[in-house]
Design goal:
Helices cover 29% and strands 23% of the residues. The chain has 385 residues and is of the alpha/beta class. It has two domains: 249 residues, Alanine racemase (TIM Barrel, Alpha-Beta Barrel), CATH 3.20.20.10; 108 residues, Lyase, Ornithine Decarboxylase, Chain A, domain 1 (Beta Barrel), CATH 2.40.37.10. The site of ligand LLP has 23 residues, from helix 10 and helix 11.
Length: 385
């Protein structure tokens, strides 16, 4: 069984469970993103929601990417990590008053606005500060990205964005607002999208929508395509870097930016997904009537994706070369959904073995919880371990 390369001896002295980040892979991924985006002069804002570990954030900030934030906490984390406020965009369907104030006080580059109601609050808050808020309208493009229903965002039935039907009325309303300045439009289809045609559909839809702005004589400085590029959860060893070349080319082929217009993307998962691994120890091998269970010291408190989205994460026994067998890999949480994988083929599992749950860098550590009064997981990095 081909396995990822891990410093297993070093792991043996560390308390489990913990996240292990391959910093070299993160840097390689960032270099590919920057090189591919540079071909089209695209602007990249890392979606902080995928992983806000301070070390990971500072690596990404240092590489020169901007940040896409969805809360005041994320804006603060991004600034602390060294992201320039002028390269921070702020999305989210429910921005609280203090979060809007923080965005204004920090002089972030753009509020991605999701409703007329929000626009009015941003305008009033900016007026009270004697400022003008830069805003982009998040438009719901109503495109099916063919991904898990719980991570689909750009369809009519989703709560996100302003519908195309309401766009005209929103623009009429906006025209009378003095303390907001419309700088662009924003879209986001969903997450873990591997079908690049969905992004092409979005590029076509974005061009059509631009025509509506042209008719009104409004020039859009920015078009933001959101995030969503998927990673290969099945082959993390073979395909550790996502298909950025094809992704940008797919959009680039269809979209002709107007003179002076900037095109933006907000990738999260594809930046950090493959560089993170959850390392967990086997507490018990339990023989059931029909199943053999490998009971780990990590549960959905450390990695909730399998329980929440039926997500697949490749699992490897990194301390055994024994004969392979099938195991249900489960956690210690008192819930039946606390299962990482069923009938997983693993090298012989014994108490004390270390199991690696791969491709866990995105929406892993950041979604950890303290349910059952558990401790949050520690994190280690390939260059400092
Ligand atoms: N921009 C916006 C407005 C978003 O809502 C998201 C993700 C992104 C960018 C980044 O998308 P990415 O490139 O990471 O696909 N917890 C789920 C994923 C939720 C994604 C939410 N929005 C999971 O574990 O699969």
């Amino acid at each position: 069984m081909l396995k990822g390369k891990f410093p297993t001896d070093k792991f043996k002295s560390l308390a489990t469970p913990f996240y292990y980040y391959n910093i070299e892979l993160l840097r390689e991924t960032l270099n590919v993103i920057k090189a591919e985006a540079a071909k089209y002069n695209y602007h990249i804002h890392y979606a902080v929601k995928a992983n806000a570990n301070p070390r990971i954030l500072s690596e990404i900030a240092r590489s020169g990417l901007g940040a896409d934030c969805v809360s005041g906490g994320e804006i603060q984390a991004a600034i602390n990590a060294g992201f320039r406020p002028g390269a921070i965009v702020f999305a989210g369907v429910g921005k609280a008053d203090w979060e809007i104030e923080l965005g204004l006080d920090s002089d972030i580059s753009c509020f991605n606005v999701e409703s007329t109601a929000e626009l009015e609050v941003i305008c009033l808050t900016a007026a009270a500060k004697g400022k003008t808020a830069p805003v982009a309208l998040r438009i719901n493009p109503d495109i099916d990205p063919h991904t898990h229903a719980k991570i689909t965002t750009g369809m009519k039935e989703n709560k996100f964005g302003i519908s195309q039907k309401q766009l005209g009325a929103t623009l009429d309303r906006l025209a009378g607002m003095r303390n907001v300045r419309l700088t662009g439009i924003h879209f986001h289809l969903g997450s873990q999208i591997t079908d690049l045609f969905s992004f092409q559909s979005l590029a076509i839809r974005a061009s059509e929508i631009q025509d509506e702005f042209d008719r009104r004589g409004i020039f859009l400085e920015n078009i933001n395509f959101g995030g969503g590029l998927g990673i290969d959860y099945y082959h993390p060893n073979h395909l550790p870097v996502a298909a950025f070349e094809n992704y940008f080319a797919a959009v680039g082929r269809l979209l002709r930016p107007r003179t002076g217009q900037q095109i933006h993307f907000e990738p999260g998962r594809s930046v950090v997904g493959q560089c993170g691994t959850l390392i967990s120890k086997v507490l018990y091998v339990k023989e059931g009537d029909t199943k053999r269970f490998a009971v780990l010291d990590a549960g959905f408190t450390e990695l909730i994706r399998p329980a929440m989205y039926d997500a697949y994460h490749r699992i490897e026994n990194i301390t055994s070369e024994g004969e392979t067998g099938l195991y249900d890999v489960v956690g210690p949480i008192c819930e039946s959904s606390d299962v990482f994988g069923r009938d997983v083929e693993l090298n012989l599992v014994r108490r004390g073995d270390l199991l690696a749950l791969r491709s866990a860098g995105a929406y892993g550590e950041i979604m950890a919880s303290q349910y059952n009064c558990r401790r949050l997981p520690a994190s280690y990095f390939s260059d400092t371990i």
